[in-house]
Design a protein that fits this description.
27% helix, eight-stranded mixed sheet, alpha+beta, 8 helices, globular
Length: 297
């Protein structure tokens, strides 16, 4: 089974405040519980496509944890994301055979507020341009609730796209190929070729993972002039390093589209947009109304 988007990690200072703010934005927020052996507790926003946000906070300083370090240095926001393997050990072994360095599988888990104990295994590459793996040992439905938990007042359906800043696009794509093990007839998983963005010193490539896409962006080397976009990305990489920094969610409610206030999302750049078919239908209806108005006049 191809790897799919599992969850996006958003580091916050105050979990209770974050739960309230995300709830006010129209998300259905669930308390996740505590991670044994760590100082972290979390809350989840689960979507209909099976992906979710993990809002994570610390009860005490954890200077050895990268996410905590990012939170202290740069403030709240998106710090990481995970892909879902069918079997973590097999996925790690296959990726290593293709030349990718990975640490793991490592055991992890969480205790939910109702006392249910969840177990999973993770694995991670040394570079932050790649996601980590998070594969369940207990049933995934215990970790990622189904049903009404995935219904949101703002109509959010799932992750359409996730933007990732990288230093060297070609090197990053090689690592993704080793991680994903793309096969030619796999319609759900596809790695696009790098392209230069006109009017910008940026190069981008898109990786399709089922219903979600990863948008990898890097500054172009040896560019003749500094153009809009590349300076901002270069500064971001210099300050925060590589990694995810923004995302688009699909929604089925036209009135909900737009970018959320960063203060209320705790630094996570999140936008709601209509799925392509609904956007087309909306625009088609608008054009038809205009045409009818002209005819009627």
């Amino acid at each position: 089974m191809p790897l799919t988007l599992d969850h996006i990690v958003i580091a916050v200072h105050d979990l209770e405040r974050s739960i309230a703010n995300y709830g006010a934005l129209g998300f259905h927020v669930l308390r996740g519980g505590d991670h044994p052996g760590r100082a972290t507790h979390n809350a989840l926003v689960v979507f209909g496509d099976g992906s979710y946000f993990e809002l994570i906070a610390w009860r005490q300083p954890s200077p050895n944890e990268r996410w905590w370090q990012l939170l202290q240095r740069h403030g709240e926001g998106i710090v990481d994301f995970a892909l879902l393997p069918r079997d973590t050990a097999i996925t790690v072994a296959d990726a290593k055979a293709r030349g990718l360095t990975l640490e793991g599988p490592l055991d992890g888990g969480r205790v939910r507020p109702d006392g249910e104990r969840l177990r999973w295994q993770t694995a991670r590459a040394p570079s932050a341009d790649l996601p980590f793996l998070c594969g369940d040992l207990t049933p995934r439905a215990l970790r990622v609730p189904e049903g009404e938990a995935r219904v949101h007042a703002n109509g959010a359906l799932g992750v359409a796209s996730l933007a990732i800043a990288v230093r060297d696009l070609d090197a990053t794509l090689a690592r993704y190929r080793a991680l994903l093990g793309i096969v030619p007839d796999d319609a759900d998983t596809h790695i696009g070729e790098p392209v230069a963005v006109p009017g910008s010193n940026l190069r981008v490539a898109v990786i399709a993972l089922g219903g979600s896409v990863l948008v990898l962006s890097s500054p172009r080397e040896n560019a003749s002039t500094a153009q809009e976009g590349s300076d901002t990305l270069t500064q971001r990489i210099a300050a925060r390093g590589e990694g995810p920094y923004a995302l688009v969610l699909h929604t089925d409610r036209p009135q909900s589209t737009g970018v959320f206030d960063l203060a209320r999302t705790h630094g996570a750049l999140i936008e709601l947009d209509l799925p392509p078919l609904e956007r087309h239908a909306k625009h088609g209806s608008a054009h038809a109304d205009q045409a009818n108005s002209v005819v009627g006049g």
